[in-house]
Design a protein that fits this description.
heterodimer; A: mainly alpha; 5 helices; B: alpha+beta; 8-stranded antiparallel β-sheet; 4-stranded antiparallel β-sheet; 12 strands
Amino acid sequence: MDTISEQEKNDFREFLSVIYGKQAKKWNINLKVLELFGRLLQSSESCSRYMDWVPRPFIAGNVIRWASRQARNAIIRHIKNGGRHYLLCLRARGLIFKHDFIMASNL
Amino acid sequence: MIKKEKQPNTLFILCSFVLLFFGCESLGFKKSSNLQNQNANMVVLKGKLSLPTPERYQNILLNDDLIIFSLPEKNIGYGVFDREDLAFIGSSKSPYNFFNDAFADSNEEEEKKFLEGFGEIKFKLFESTKDFEFYFFDLGIRKKIYILSNSLDFVAEVTSEDDNLENLFRRIIQYSNIQ
């Protein structure tokens, strides 16, 4: 199984903080959190054309491969450049996963 | 992790001190003497909603936003959604109205997006009492319980991968009360 670097963990925290607020910057990033992150994006497939970034079928190993710096930066750029519809859609979908993320980060 | 107490008074005093220092509106744990079953433990969410704890939990982790019960099978989390959570996703509704409308297949965009995030709902239960509406969702791997009340400024959620969460749902219906 691939491991992720501290920089990549920080990148994930940054992305999660866009969806959940600054509390996400304190979350521990582990495999369970990454799996949830992938499920969140898959559940949000109607939110944006950027869903092509998520490989199918979704398995734990894939989340690390898809979550390349290139993919993450592209999505973050999309959000920062005024993709408000995408952002609010992600946040609405993300509400269901919020407490699951907190539980996963405490494993 | 906070271990299950062998000296209940010490843990209660410690939690009370922590809650007093950080504010009493946060999630809190206390033993209740208001139930027919005198051995049942309760948690109090935001000083207002009292819920029974899962049975046979081993440890408790108190987080800012979640109480996590550690069990042999799967962990169970008790959390809340307040008006701030909903404002963050673009809704100006109260938590009660948002969840109530969302579960009733609302046409509002934020509520539709929220409900679509559940994905395939394999099984659903609903019960109502004088003070509450209770929802149980089996989403396959994950199960969710929602506790709604027009008397509360938040909605409570219980979340777990435990296959026996429906048993907890029945206990929550029976023992939940507003402080």
